[in-house]
Specification:
globular; 15 helices; alpha/beta; five-stranded mixed beta sheet; binds iron/sulfur cluster; Cobalt-precorrin-4 Transmethylase, domain 1; 3 domains; about 425 residues; Rossmann fold; four-stranded parallel beta sheet
């Protein structure tokens, strides 16, 4: 990450910040009608009202208690739609994707909202002007991107989720007291990149290190306890630490924070192992701080899935964008217990026996053969979805399952 971080814009080049409130009552009335029209599902609402379970013939479908759009995503979508209403004639851009869902991003594209590269400040940013509007997505963006947009004089509509900003406040506090932020997350994820830029602090002298897996955490813990090969360390975490980060200097005081959408149990384990390592080295935990920054929505969806898994089911379908971190963690939880398929939409259910899905281990979309849906016996299918998945995609999945089981949409709607 350090090697790709864009250079900060010099203060003298910065123009005045232009931020606007696009959520006026008149605008929001129209926006809410549009958003409902695009993403609402009467069947999902009906299922919710029936404690998430419906049985027709020998097919039972169960929905997790918490699934789909979270408050942060709803707000980001509202703001993006409102921007189009408030600036009907202006060019509107978006840094990367508003959220990790193809369907939502397609709708924004249809509204003429153009996605800008999010990995680096490319020349497209140089071409932005004062009449342009730029939307910052729910995951936020690195400080250098915001500086650049302001320097170009654009109007900024910032949809960053409050829970993400909470993490930023925490890592900034770490940097002020000389504590290196250990960020549990994916180094290349938009949110983690944004958080890492805040971990440098206002004076840009702070440090961070991104760890993704328990194996990464163990490697760091070993280094904390007894040191090791500095070059090997830096190679292993290449792209995931601040400029001039030195494991021999900057692991003296560490503070753990996490990408808001990580697997809670894994984050807790990483916190525990890091703390133990510091205690072994120092004889106390004064060189260790931590703050649980997993957001409420992520936690609720994981907890709801654990609850759903307490009763037996034959198969779990997890609906969401393949690049959605919180959705992938739901898949991880499910696949430990039963056949679980990570699908981006109902179109992945190709036939009774052919399911196209994302394999988290191979990191690619594959096609699998399964006899579960074609069974003559009574079956129970569980469905859940990540925080960026709209209800209409969940409804299509529910209807497709019943259709394959010989039950058409009208029957489901009237049940
Ligand atoms: S998943 Fe959590 S952090 Fe991300 S937008 Fe939703 S509420 Fe905010």
């Amino acid at each position: 990450m350090s090697s790709t971080s864009p250079a900060p814009v010099p203060p003298e080049k910065k123009k005045k910040k232009k931020r606007v409130n696009v959520r006026t009552p008149e605008v929001m009335e129209r926006v809410q009608a549009e958003v409902e029209d695009h993403y609402r599902s009467s069947i999902v609402e009906k299922l919710r009202a029936r404690a998430g379970s419906i049985t027709i013939g020998n097919t039972t479908l169960r929905l997790a208690k918490q699934f789909g759009f979270c408050y942060g995503v709803e707000r980001a979508i509202d703001l993006a739609y409102a921007s189009r209403r408030v600036f009907p004639e202006n060019r509107i851009f978006l840094i990367g994707e508003i959220i990790h869902n193809q369907e939502v991003n397609r709708q924004l594209e249809e509204m003429g909202i153009v996605s800008l590269p999010w990995q680096e400040i490319s020349e497209e940013y140089d071409n932005l002007g004062e009449d342009d509007v730029v939307i910052v997505p729910a995951f936020g963006a690195p400080i250098a991107f915001l500086d650049k947009i302001e320097a170009q004089g654009c109007t900024m509509v910032d949809t960053t989720c409050g829970d993400v900003m909470k993490v930023w406040r925490r890592v900034k506090t770490y940097s002020k007291s000389g504590v290196t932020s250990i960020i549990h997350g994916k180094a290349g994820h938009e949110e983690t990149r944004a958080t890492a830029s805040r971990a440098l602090g206002d004076d840009k002298k702070g440090h961070y290190l991104v760890v993704l897996t328990l194996a990464d955490a163990d490697y760091v813990c070993d280094y904390i306890r007894k040191g090791g090969d500095r070059d090997e360390f830096l190679k292993r975490f290449e792209g995931g630490y601040s400029d001039e980060f030195d494991p021999d200097l900057h692991l003296a005081q560490i503070g753990v924070a996490n990408q808001t959408t990580m697997l809670k149990s894994e984050t807790e384990e990483i916190q525990k192992r890091m703390c133990d390592a510091v205690i072994t080295r120092d004889g106390n935990d004064e060189g260790y701080q931590m703050f649980d920054t997993i957001c409420g929505a992520t936690q609720e969806r994981q907890d709801a899935l654990f609850e759903m898994l307490e009763k037996p089911m034959d198969m779990l379908l997890v609906v969401g964008g393949y690049n959605s971190s919180n959705t992938a963690h739901l898949v991880e939880i499910g696949e430990k217990e039963l056949p679980t398929f990570f699908i981006r939409s109902s179109e992945c259910l190709k036939s009774l026996e052919d399911i196209v899905h994302f394999d988290l281990h191979k990191k690619e979309e594959i096609s699998s053969y399964s006899e579960i849906l074609s069974s003559d016996k009574p079956i129970t299918i569980g469905v859940t979805a990540g925080a960026s998945c709209p209800n209409n995609l969940i409804e299509n999945t529910v209807l497709k399952v019943f259709e394959f089981r010989g039950i058409d949409a009208a029957v489901v709607e009237s049940s």
